[in-house]
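Form P-L/3: holo structure prediction, ligand zinc ion.
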Amino acid sequence: MSAYSTEVQLATSLLCSSSGAMQMLQLHRKLLQRCSITEEEFCFIISRCSRFLLVGERLEDRAVVARTSLRLCSGYGGGKCGGGGCQQLHLCKFFVYGNCRFAKGRKSCKFSHDIYSDHNYGLLRECTLHELNEDQLFLLLLQNDPALLPEVTQLTHTWTA
Ligand SMILES: [Zn+2]
Ligand SMILES: [Zn+2]
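OUTPUT (holo model):
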């Protein structure tokens, strides 16, 4: 997939700017505004790359959902992360939810709000997610990390289809 890393990154940021999912045809159209990608290449990327999940039965209704295996470190908040080779993000969970009460206050949060820290940015680069902005990245994490989901459904009720 590395031959298509630019297209994969573009498609990911388009999806994450659009609540994480988009109709297949619409995504292809939007991609065409940014790069030249044939329909064949597009279908190949979407069906082969683990970044994308196709949902829907009929071809014309098919939607693409952005995925990642990257997670927030569950030990980080409780000071239980072993450190060293940890392959998960070290971020304040509430910052990812968008409701850390220390985000704007005078007191600073004791957990990281920095997606560009050495640890976090290194992981983002490995997963080729480093070109996403905070909002896009957090949406992707919230929609993929089961550990984050219960509280999200409490916070936002927009996902009840
Ligand atoms: Zn960790
Ligand atoms: Zn915080």
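COMMENT: The domain at 2-66 is CATH 1.10.10 (Arc Repressor Mutant, subunit A).
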